[in-house]
Design goal:
single chain; alpha/beta; TIM Barrel; 10 helices
């Protein structure tokens, strides 16, 4: 009898965390004004600490796409991430969707974030991820701003169809939307003529874990590419305060299976090899 093939693959995938607090989620924008953020107790520190402990237990490293707003208020947390051997990257300053800003406003936001993060982390920040994957065919000018701000790579496109974001026509794997920039789309798998989400977020909590595992294995083995997976610190925080007045769809998407998230992440860390984005995708370009 032939032994079953082990789940682990030789490919090293990129694990990413979008460092924002629960009240900064774009879907909560109509209910929580940015002007009120400073009045709300932050929970992001304790949640990131739990993630760091989990990564240390599994000897895994990750890229933390961090808001400049968070870095200004939690500088010790940024230094803790760096000291643990992880990569700090930018998620913008105030979690503005790129699609909601003018070119000037967008350039100012991502430039401010880079300065704050580099001053706090004490190292260069190479990567940027647009909040809510808000770069599409309609605002391709954003890539020029990202280059001008001094970033080396972006992970701002999710090649799926979604009611709030997505660019299904975009390449599924690393490509250069600008001669000086590498775009690293969040992972999808191609089936039945469409791209299916395989890179985390709410889909990871919605789908049974074996489905997500199968999708990632398919990308590694059939496509031969590393996966890019993402999640948020608030997703390991089932005790977070509930935001009143939100619609049923938003409530479902945000709170679904929060209590199962940490267990699923531990299985994910066991089943695949994970490292920082810069080491998975930039190493060959820098040599």
């Amino acid at each position: 009898m032939v032994a079953p093939e082990p789940v682990r693959t030789r490919i090293v995938n990129a694990l990413t965390i979008d460092v924002e607090d629960y009240f900064q989620v774009s879907a909560f924008g109509p209910h929580i004004a940015r002007e009120a953020w400073d009045t709300i107790p932050v929970r992001v520190e304790r949640n990131v600490e739990r993630i760091l402990e989990m990564l240390a237990e599994h000897r895994a490293h990750a890229t933390f796409f961090t808001l400049g707003w968070v870095a200004e208020r939690c500088p010790a947390l940024v230094r803790r991430i760096v000291d643990a051997g992880h990569e700090i990257a930018s998620h913008g300053y105030a979690h503005h969707r790129a699609s909601e800003l003018s070119p000037g406003e967008f350039c100012a936001d991502i430039g401010r974030a880079k300065t704050v993060l580099e001053d706090t982390a004490g190292q260069a920040v190479k990567g940027y991820r647009a909040p809510s994957f808000s770069i599409s065919e309609r605002n391709g000018w954003a890539f020029e701003c990202i280059v001008e701000a001094g970033y080396r790579y972006s992970s701002s496109i999710y090649p799926i169809k979604h009611d709030h974001y997505g660019m299904p026509s975009a390449p599924r794997f690393p490509h250069a939307p600008h001669p000086e920039l590498l775009e690293l789309p969040v992972t999808t798998t191609r089936m039945l003529g469409r791209n299916l989400p395989a890179g985390g977020g709410g889909y990871f909590r919605l789908m049974p874990y074996p489905v997500s595992r199968w999708f990632i294995r398919r990308v590694n083995r059939i496509d031969g590419h590393p996966a890019i997976f993402y999640f948020h610190p608030w997703e390991v925080d089932p005790e977070q305060p509930r935001v009143p007045g939100i619609g049923a769809k938003t409530r479902f998407r945000h709170y679904l299976n929060l209590r199962r998230m940490e267990q699923r992440l531990r299985r994910l860390l066991d089943d695949f090899h994970w490292d920082r984005v810069d080491r998975v995708f930039l190493k060959e370009r820098e040599e």
